[in-house]
Amino acid sequence: MSRKSLDRKISRRKFLGTTAASGTALAAMGSGLSRVAFADSHTIRIGFLAPLTGPVAAWGKPGLDGCLIWADWVNAKGGVNIGGQSYNIEFVGYDNEYDAAKARTGATKLIKEDGVKFVMMLGGDTWPGVQKIAEREGMLFSTLLPSDLSPDSTTLVAPCEVHPIYNVTGVEWLAENKPELKTAAMCAQDDALGKPSVATYLAAFEAAGIEMQDEPLFFDPATTDFAPVMTKLLAGNPDILCLDTCYADYVHPLCEQAFQQGYKGQIISCTADFYQKIIEKTSAEFMEGFIFQFPDFDDPALNSEGVNFVNPNEFYAEYAKRYGASEWGAVSWEYASIMDLWADAAGKAGSAEPAAVLEAMKAGGTGKHAFGTADWWGTELFGIDNALVGNWPVVAIEGGKATIKEFRSIPAWWDKHKDLMVKHMTALGQMWNQRG
Amino acid sequence: MDLLWQTAVNATYAASYMALIAVGLVMIFGVMGVINFAHGELYMVGAYCVVFLYAQENFPFLLAVAAGLVFVGIVGIVMERTMFRPLRDNPLGGLIASIGFLLILQTLVVFGFGRRMGHVPPSTHGKIEFFGAVLTYQRLFVIVAAILLLAALWAFLRRSKFGRALRACAQDTEAASLQGISMNQTARIAMFIGAGLAGVAGALTAPLVSPTPYIGHSIIVTAFIIIIVGGVGSLEGAVIAAVLYAFVHTFVTTFFDGVIANIVGLALMLSVLVVRPTGLFGARERA
User: Fold this and answer.
1) Strand-pair partners of A402
2) Do domains A43-164+311-320+329-389 and A167-292+396-427 have the same CATH topology?
3) Do B215 and A224 touch (CB under 8 A)?
4) Structural domain boundaries of chain B?
């Protein structure tokens, strides 16, 4: 294009007009940008510090997936109202690979760089890496494993899952409904998740009058071939095969081995994540009656009065739509449920600051647990009342589908048998004052 | 169920896949002098070949296993050409490069298949029972395949020209070169066979384990214990050590527990090192 033609097309007036319009547009854009920046300052960041990779990822990644649904739903409704102001929620994930050192790095990053107001963790072996930071920073942390609790860590709460204490409900239900089962054999990985769960099952079996055939069999978490483990467990042909709190990577091959080695008795386990895949590897008949503790959230029993989780069936449907129903696992709803508690507490406190939220969360000594109103509890077992304990469901696989059989009270069991629990926890060095 | 027989069956299966992995590792070390830390990840890639071809794309199981062998063998050739050949005079460099490569393989599998375990349904639910013990066809495949592949490897090394070239390079690289044996070609063949054996072990066992991108970690530790016990560089030693380790580990797991079994396995390695530092067959015979 020649200069002459340019001159012809762009007159001075046109140039000024165009410039003015551009300036106005830029100003509008600028104000738009400032609005975005303003809105961004009304976003609260929540840390998600859990294993997203590795063998324990099944208890981290599905939880983050569930939280993303929770955030989308809450943000779509205008966010969380805190002190008369609406705040959007943004999750910042950090993969600690279930490693204490990486958890420490992640906690530092989340608090110092990302400015989170609350950090959710799986806990277990990773908590010791974070404990000092939590104490120093006064940051509010949550764990799914209340065995992490101690009086030294006042800002750590277990507001959803009271692992492994709820496992007593499954054994208690079995003893009441299948009294013919008299003997049990148990295995667990040798780590911070396996041991307290073993102590819990031992207490529950003893309370139910079920005899252990042998000492619990601990295996190395690096185990890939579970045939020898299962051979030993089945040697005495137990009525009940207890898989403790084995990770999904272990539950699947253990069940497959039990099936292949001809076991026909009752199986009980803390979890049965992705149980449809276990059925594929074994059979629906073999898995029929399998008892565990984590329902699918499309279960109609979750719509009953007293259940506090918001829209459980819709949540499950959305999860299945986004990630696939077979990806639903034990923790898919748990971290989201903790966020319900956090949002409620932050709203009551009128602040997202950790100390204020914690105080509001524990006010009155009770809280709205996902499965009903529950008590802040734990001094006798953890040295501090920072675990929210109430009812927990007992779930059985029936016709290839997880089905809630009953909600049972953990405190009711505790009132009757707490001495047994303390005895077995102490024997395995799992009381709060025994852990290093 | 007869506990003793069942434990022996379990140990035989474990010995089979461990022997495949360890012999592959020994092949690579014997010919090239490289400690391949990515060997466990080659096993993992073999398992994921079955996850993809058999579990996801519904190809026949045995075809997926064969593809696993060939594909991982080719990955081995790529490793030889891109890492181990340029670093041939630098064994430490080869080791470090293999550590980097294992991270690359892990990451690629995470990108392709996700971080969670892969699900591989069994190709058959069939099983045989004898003396009160149960042996599933899936495990029988592993045992039979290991015996056939190791026998074929033995025949290849003893009877074929390439096999003799491999053994010559393993014994004395310079002398072999002076006889006109191509080091590049020999290393390529060794890497294909070594990696392929790890790959086929992963492929065969994929329905029996929970494959994850990180499964190679536990495999490589066991493989190193076996080749140290057997004598680094000895194929026969690797096979016998795999059998020995598998039986000791399996019996101790069954009659005591898995944690004690690991301690006993390491104690076995230390005992062999103290009594015979070259391993059971290290001094007498090399590949």
Assistant:
1) A397
2) yes
3) yes
4) 3-216
Test B258 with A53 for CB contact under 8 angstroms: no
The tens digit of pLDDT for each residue in B89-117 reads 887 888 899 999 999 999 999 888 876 77
Mean pLDDT taken over chain B = 91
ipTM over 0.85: no
Residues of chain A numbered 40-79 and touching chain B (CB < 8 Å): 52-55, 57-58, 61
CB atoms closer than 10 angstroms to residue B222: 23
Do the Cβ atoms of B10 and A227 come within 8 Å? yes
State the architecture of A167-292+396-427 in CATH terms.
Answer: 3-Layer(aba) Sandwich (3.40)
**Which CATH code for domain A43-164+311-320+329-389?**
3.40.50.2300
Chain A residue numbers with beta carbons less than 8 Å from the beta carbon of B116 are 57-58, 61
d(CA B182, CA B186): 6
Rg of chain B (C-alpha set) = 18
pLDDT in tens, B201-215: 999 999 998 898 989
Q: In the block, which residue shows the tokens 């009132």? A: A415
Q: Which of A224, A231, A274 sits opposite B218 (nearest CB)?
A: A224
Q: Under a CB-based contact definition with an 8 Å cutoff, are residues A395 and A294 in contact?
A: yes
Cα separation, B116 vs A102, whole angstroms? 19
All residues of chain A having their beta carbon less than 8 Å from the beta carbon of residue B208 are 225, 253, 256
Spatial CA neighbour of A161 closest among A251, A245, A217: A245
In angstroms, the CA A395 to CA A407 distance is 9
Distance CA B227, CA B229 (A): 5
pLDDT tens, B1-12? 688 999 999 999
Least confident of A28-42, A53-67, A79-93, B7-21: A28-42
Among A residues 161-220, those touching chain B with beta carbons less than 8 Å apart: 190, 217-220
Which residue carries 């990302």 as its tokens?
Answer: A114
- Contact between A347 and A297 under an 8 Å Cβ cutoff? The reply is no
Handedness of CA A118, A122, A124, A125 (dihedral sign): negative
Question: Does the pLDDT of residue B284 top 80, yes or no?
Answer: no
Record: contact B259-A220, CB cut-off 8 A: yes
Q: What is the pTM of this model?
A: 0.81
- Count the alpha carbons within 13 Å of B217 in the hemisphere toward its beta carbon: 11
Whether A61 and B213 lie within 8 Å, measured CB to CB? no
Write down the domain spans for chain A. Answer: 3-40, 43-164+311-320+329-389, 167-292+396-427
Cα(A88)–Cα(A393) distance, rounded to whole angstroms?
32
Mutate to test the interface with A, among B125, B140, B208, B264 (most CBs of A within 10 A): B208
pLDDT at A39: 39
The closest of B241, B180, B227, B174 to B28, measured between CA atoms, is B227
Out of B3, B117, B221, name the one closest to residue A249 (CB).
B117
pLDDT band per the 50, 70, 90 thresholds, residue A21? very low
Count CB-CB contacts under 10 A for residue B70: 14
A281-296 confidence digits (pLDDT tens)? 899 999 999 999 999 9
- The chain B residue lying nearest A186, using CA atoms, is B257
Taking contacts as CB-CB distances below 8 angstroms, the residues of chain A near B124 are none
Mutate to test the interface with A, among B20, B117, B129 (most CBs of A within 10 A): B117
Of the partner residues B116, B208, B258, the one whose CB lies closest to the CB of residue A57? B116
pLDDT in tens, B235-244: 899 999 999 9
Q: Do B110 and A53 touch (CB under 8 A)?
A: yes
Q: Do B1 and A190 touch (CB under 8 A)?
A: no
Q: How far is CA A379 from CA A125, A147, A150, A155, in A?
A: 21, 12, 9, 15
In sequence order, what are the residues at sequence separation of 6 or more whose Cβ sits closer than 8 angstroms to the Cβ of residue A366? Answer: A373, A374, A375, A376
